[in-house]
Amino acid sequence: MVFKSPVEGIEEKFEMIQILNEDGKIVNEDAMPDLSDDDLVELMRRMVYTRVLDQRSIALNRQGRLGFYAPTAGQEASQLGSQFALEQDDFILPGYRDVPQLIWQGLPLYQAFLFSRGHYHGNQMPEDVQALSPQIIIGAQITQAAGVALGMKNRGKKNVAITYTGDGGASQGDFYEGVNFAGAYQAPAIFIVQNNRFAISVPVEKQSAAKTIAQKSVAMGIPGFLVDGMDVLAVYKVVQEARERAVNGDGPTLIETLTYRYGPHTMAGDDPTRYRTEDMDSEWEKKDPIVRFRKFLEEKGLWSEEKENEVMETAKEEIKAAIKKADKQEKQSVTELISIMHEELPANLKEQMEEFKEKESK
Amino acid sequence: MAEMTMIQAITDALRTELKNDDNVLVFGEDVGQNGGVFRATEGLQDEFGEERVFDTPLAESGIIGMAVGLSTQDYRPVPEIQFFGFVFEAMDAVVGQAARMRYRSGGRWHAPITIRSPFGGGVHTPELHADSLEGFMTQAPGLRVVIPSGPYDAKGLLISSIRNNDPVIFLEHMKLYRSFREEVPEEEYTIDLDKANIVKEGTDMTLVAYGAMVHASLKAAEELEEEGISCEVIDLRTVSPIDIDTILESVKKTNRAIVVQEAQRQAGVAAGIVAEIQERAILHLESPVFRVTAPDTVYPFSQAEEVWLPNHQDIKEKVKESMNF
């Protein structure tokens, strides 16, 4: 062979960024984010709260009281560390597992439950939450994020569009198109790939010959980072720097977070024992984002069992109240559906509106 | 008033709305410095700057996805799909995303996007340039599909489409781009969407058509007039939704109808219209409602297209079949 690939071994350049190791020890003091004690406690509170929300959601789903639900346990650091780096006017384009980010950005809990139940009010973001509802089509949100970001840039906003997908999503054509568009326009976008190792059942190794997803940034000509997705401090720091670059006019960033979902793909019948081993599960549980952050905070005297129990109790009460509120929401009607399809109803829908008014009055 | 080709009328409409509304953005492959492969955007980048009229990377899904994103920032995107056969690359972005923005977000977001795209047979293009794919689009709730038949309509309909706050697919028949000129007012004007236009009145037969088939229908009607058959010709202008009232009113007068489309026969726009007519006006009919369409094959490489495409002779024969039924 005369010619050698100039990027041979490129994946070795993408070393996993870690600040807090599995034992709760800071391993990269220089990278330590500038967060106050209150911020650190708040991050922990959110992760614990979200873990409880996940457990309760799974239970509610099993009782037939929730509907569509994609479990989040294991991914708290990736989801909440990245969201914590955002400003209120930043724009979130989530995948279907990324409901926690919306909640902490301001989507009321009862609306998150209504999203699960398939009520459109669950998708109606409050005025102060700049976000689309969770995307079902893998990767469709990535090209949209490029558009949101280009729009923000042209409007002179000092904000970013942040979008989330998984390791499977990084195989979609829309992933390459969206990231490439944002790069071409130097638009302020942050692309997060939560690599939880399985696209439903297909292992990440089968998605690509590339050893990392982060290295795909090289082809798109933008910065890319591989981050320990179980380390909330590392995720926060990398996203915060990406945000800074973006609002300073230095374009988009691709971030791969290495994480794991403890639960099934969704609650609609997926059985992870068909494609994962117990060994693998326990290997990843040792990396748990909450366990290591708890150790770190306890060491600093910022956290205690008592505090954690308090957060868990509050979460349970608020979840109970939110479910009650969601239960009170009137069932979505077909006439409502017809009325929000267009600004101006076309004749066929006007006619069908009358038909369904009658059907629904029976 | 100036005489314009349809392509000039389209440029004129884009210029009008770029001037009227700072939120209008025109973008796509080659639409910037090059002015578009058909020159639809000729001179617009020089006039309005690169932030308003710009080239995109070559990726249709990316283009429409980006339009959806831009609409959240209060822009009014007018993306171009270079040839409508390329829309398959963007099918999710159009049908799965743009069309559903208003419903999906409970009205929090909407997508005031007008997707312009050339289509239509008879100009010897390579594969997947000429196909009539409007049928796919008309099955998508949330979209309007508009197809002008000439310069005057193109300007008024395009301005209305851009001003509409929901997504519109605006399909421009390539054969009509430069085949004739029409008086087109230089000032702005709109033409109502969702409304058909009676382009020729008649008493014996209703011909329903859109795009280039309006002209084939008019030619057939002229020749049939000499044989004593009076055809009314309806130009749908908007093929989703269908202005069924205008069609029914005509059918109740003529008692016969033929729907003409350049697209293949199965499913599609014509089939839907036939179904509506028989459901709503069967007792007015003296004959079955016939269709004149292309066969259910893929659009041919250009060698066979002259025969493949429906023409005014096909329409005339079908009219006689109906009259003699």
TrEMBL record, chain B:
<dbReference type="Pfam" id="PF02779">
    <property type="entry name" value="Transket_pyr"/>
</dbReference>
<keyword id="KW-0786">Thiamine pyrophosphate</keyword>
<dbReference type="GO" id="GO:0016491">
    <property type="term" value="F:oxidoreductase activity"/>
</dbReference>
<dbReference type="InterPro" id="IPR029061">
    <property type="entry name" value="THDP-binding"/>
</dbReference>
<protein>
    <submittedName>
        <fullName>Alpha-ketoacid dehydrogenase subunit beta</fullName>
    </submittedName>
</protein>
<dbReference type="InterPro" id="IPR009014">
    <property type="entry name" value="Transketo_C/PFOR_II"/>
</dbReference>
<dbReference type="InterPro" id="IPR005475">
    <property type="entry name" value="Transketolase-like_Pyr-bd"/>
</dbReference>
<dbReference type="InterPro" id="IPR033248">
    <property type="entry name" value="Transketolase_C"/>
</dbReference>
<feature type="domain" description="Transketolase-like pyrimidine-binding">
    <location>
        <begin position="4"/>
        <end position="179"/>
    </location>
</feature>
<dbReference type="Pfam" id="PF02780">
    <property type="entry name" value="Transketolase_C"/>
</dbReference>
<keyword id="KW-0560">Oxidoreductase</keyword>
